[in-house]
Amino acid sequence: MSPTIIMRLARAAPDRRPLSARLRPAGAVLSKAMGWPVRYWRARQHLAQLAGMTDVQLKDIGLTRADVISATALPRDEDPTERLALVVQERRITRGWRRP
């Protein structure tokens, strides 16, 4: 190590936060990683429900059959229901739809 790096490390203030506050970011990452299978399973259940709807029902909520099919091709770490919600929102904006 160069002398300037050693000097910077020596002058760095110690982290005086409680241990729980220092470990919180690691806990958040761990809980997100542990919860991934459950989130994936739920998202795929919702996608299966959408796939079971008729074309008329899908049109009522602003989707097409092609939207649902394309959502099945998304990577596993991406939530298909969030992507479909964005598709619906974009369509409503471009078509000038407003809530009653």
Q: What is the fold's blueprint, element by element?
A:
Elements: H1 3-11, H2 19-51, H3 55-60, H4 65-71, H5 80-95
Organism: Alsobacter soli
Domain YjiS-like: 39-68
InterPro entries: YjiS-like (IPR009506)
Written overview of the protein:
- With 100 residues, the chain is mostly helical.
- The protein has one domain (17-95).
- It has five helices and no strands.
- The chain has helices at residues 3-11, 19-51, 55-60, 65-71, 80-95.
- The N and C termini lie far apart (66 Å).
Please summarize what this structure is.
This is YjiS-like domain-containing protein. Residues 39-68 form the YjiS-like domain. This protein has 100 residues and is mainly alpha-helical.
User: Would you tell me the structural class of the helices and strands?
Assistant: mainly alpha
- Chain-averaged pLDDT: 78
Low-confidence stretches: none
Number of strands: 0
What share of residues is helical?
A: over 70%
The termini sit apart by: 66 Å
Protein name: YjiS-like domain-containing protein
InterPro entries: YjiS-like
Domain YjiS-like: 39-68
Which labels suit this protein?
elongated, 0% strand, 71% helix, YjiS-like domain-containing protein, YjiS-like
